[in-house]
Write a structure and sequence with these properties.
It contains one helix and ten strands; from the N terminus they run αββββββββββ. By secondary structure, it is mainly β. About 15% of the residues have low confidence. It folds into two domains: about 40 residues; about 100 residues, no CATH class. A hairpin with a 7-residue loop joins β4 and β5. The strands form two sheets. Strands 3, 4, 5, 6, 7, 8, 9 and 10 form an eight-stranded antiparallel β-sheet that branches. The longest helix is centred in the N-terminal third of the chain and has 20 residues. Helices cover about 15% and strands about 55% of the residues.
Length: about 140
């Protein structure tokens, strides 16, 4: 009985994909280049916030999105990948490139905003200082 249900489910999924797969393709024009892309393509993007305490440190969070026509931004955040730190040259001697996401991100506005808690290290030249901040990814702005 389980095999029969599994077989019927598989056939239903295949038929549904075949019928809706053709309607999910859109033409995208970039310059003179025309290509096809599906509405569920996953794209990797990044968001950089600069934190001043007392000097600047850039924290970049890499995340994935997909198209979502029901959202006002036209996108939906599907995941948070990782974060990196860098020194914008505004006072710190060094900013450690290794940044950790120390808690589960919180999503808002139908996954158009993400609040990503990060932990990074900065140095004024005599040892490392650990800092905690929240990177706010906002697809609505």
């Amino acid at each position: 009985m389980k095999r029969l249900i599994s077989w019927v489910t598989t056939i239903t999924i295949v038929i549904t994909m075949a019928m809706t797969g053709l309607s999910g393709i859109q033409q995208v024009m970039a310059s003179d280049d025309v290509r096809e892309e599906t509405s569920r393509d996953i794209l990797t993007m990044s968001w950089t916030d600069t934190f001043y305490d007392p000097y600047g440190a850039d924290v970049t969070v890499y995340y994935t999105v997909r198209r979502e026509s029901s959202n006002s931004s036209g996108q939906l955040i599907t995941g948070i990948l990782y974060a990196e730190g860098s020194n914008p040259g505004s006072g710190w001697y060094a900013v450690d490139s290794s940044v950790s996401i120390y808690q589960t991100p919180i999503f808002g506005n139908n996954y158009q905003k993400a609040y990503v808690p990060v932990c990074y290290r900065v140095s004024s030249g005599s040892g490392w200082i650990t800092k905690y901040d929240v990177v706010i990814i906002n697809l609505l702005s």
